[in-house]
Design brief:
With 288 residues, this protein is an alpha/beta fold. The chain contains 13 helices and 8 strands. Helix 3 runs parallel beside helix 4 and helix 9 runs parallel beside helix 10. The radius of gyration is 17 Å and the shape is globular.
Length: 288
């Protein structure tokens, strides 16, 4: 139990938390009490992988097999649209299947775009927003990312807002400042009540896909500063109940130390989520 909140605060928010749309009507694997508001959340981000539907189904099945009924983590996979239906079938309800991206537009002449309503109609409750690859390769701005977040919330869905600094910003000790701006702009217009449907993924860009995982100390420092920003934007209770995940080259070798940090509530995993054995070890991390 990593929370240092007074019990009363946690219990007060229990009712609100359990009525969150993300959790209503859901049995395992998602947590259902405020004491578990920051239950570890392990997420795979498949990006443009794997190559075929058959591989996707095999991978999803392998990952679901690692999720026991009493698993210490909630588990989600953010997968390419074309695999959503078969991945959902393959995991048999043990793993949340989310979208990697949604368009803030509802319908119309936006060739290639996919709306929240479309993914929702396929039983999807979650989407990423603001992944660094979307920011850097596809030029998505904080304002566009904010529109995606607002659309997901408007539709009763959940969003994992990804934030993180570039290497040159890290070297200038600007990690926390960059994250503060991305949090404030990304979450603009999202109410305290709606924050129950938001998770944050801190992913230093220099650590994504590079094998250069942030040290637990570096990650903890930024996570703590993000929680402080959330407390300033909302209040301490909201900050204390929001899951902040770390992402960037997480592997079975690094997960235990990262998860031992008081403000790290899970991991958003790219490469290692494409290997069921590795991701199984991450889901079932060891408490150190
Ligand atoms: P990585 O990717 O684990 O391969 O570094 C993480 C991410 O981009 O979410």
């Amino acid at each position: 139990m990593k929370l240092s909140l007074p019990l009363a605060t946690l219990l007060t928010s229990a009712a609100a938390f359990t009525s969150s749309p993300a959790f209503v009507g859901r049995s395992a694997p998602f947590s259902t009490t405020a004491l578990d508001a920051r239950k570890p959340f392990m997420c795979g981000n498949w990006k443009l992988n794997p190559t075929t539907k058959d591989e996707a189904v095999e991978l999803a099945k392998g990952i679901a097999a690692a999720v026991a009924d009493d698993c210490i983590s909630d588990v989600a996979l953010f997968v390419p649209y074309v695999y959503i239906e078969s991945a959902k079938q393959a995991v048999g309800g043990k793993v949340e299947i989310g979208a990697e991206l949604i368009s803030p537009e509802e319908k119309g002449a936006f060739t290639g775009a996919v709306s929240t309503s479309m993914v929702k109609s396929m039983g999807v409750n979650w989407s990423l927003a603001g992944h660094s690859e979307r920011r850097t390769i596809f030029g998505e701005s904080n304002e566009y990312i904010n529109a995606q977040c607002l659309k997901l919330i408007e539709k009763g869905m959940n969003v994992m807002l990804c934030i993180g600094e570039l290497e040159e910003e890290f070297e200038k000790d600007l990690a926390s400042a960059v994250c503060a701006v991305q949090l404030k702009k990304g979450l603009a217009g999202i109410s305290k009540e709606d924050m129950k449907r938001v998770a944050i993924a801190y992913e230093p860009v220099w650590a994504i896909g590079t094998g250069k995982v942030a040290t637990p100390e570096i990650a903890q420092k930024v996570h703590a500063s993000c929680r402080k920003i959330l407390a300033e934007m909302y209040d301490q209770e909201t900050a204390d109940n929001t899951r902040i995940l770390y992402g960037g080259s997480v592997t079975p070798d690094s997960v235990d130390e990262l998860m031992a940090q008081p403000d790290i509530d899970g991991a958003l995993v790219g490469g290692a989520s494409l290997d069921a054995t590795k991701f199984a070890r991450i889901i079932n991390f060891k408490k150190v």
